[in-house]
Amino acid sequence: MRFETRAIHGGLDHDNHARAIVPPVYHSTVYELSEAGKQDDELLYSRLDNPNRRQWEALAASLEGGAGAAAFASGIAAATAVLQALDPGDHVIFPDDLYSGHRMMITGLMNRWNLHSSFVDATNANTIREAIRPETRLIWMETPSNPMLRITDIAAVCELARSRGLISCVDNTWPSPVNQRPLELGADLVMHSSTKYFGGHSDTLGGLVIAREENELMERIRFIQRLGGAVPSPQDCWMLARSTRTLAYRMRGHNAHGAELAAFLARHPKVGAVHYPGLSGHPGHETARRQMHGFGGMISFEVKGDASQTLKVVAGAALIRRATSLGGVESSWEHRLSTEGEGSKTPGNLIRFSVGLEHPDDLKEDLERALSVL
Ligand SMILES: *Cc1c(COP(=O)(O)O)cnc(C)c1O
Question: What residue ranges of the chain have pLDDT lower than 70?
Answer without folding.
Answer: none
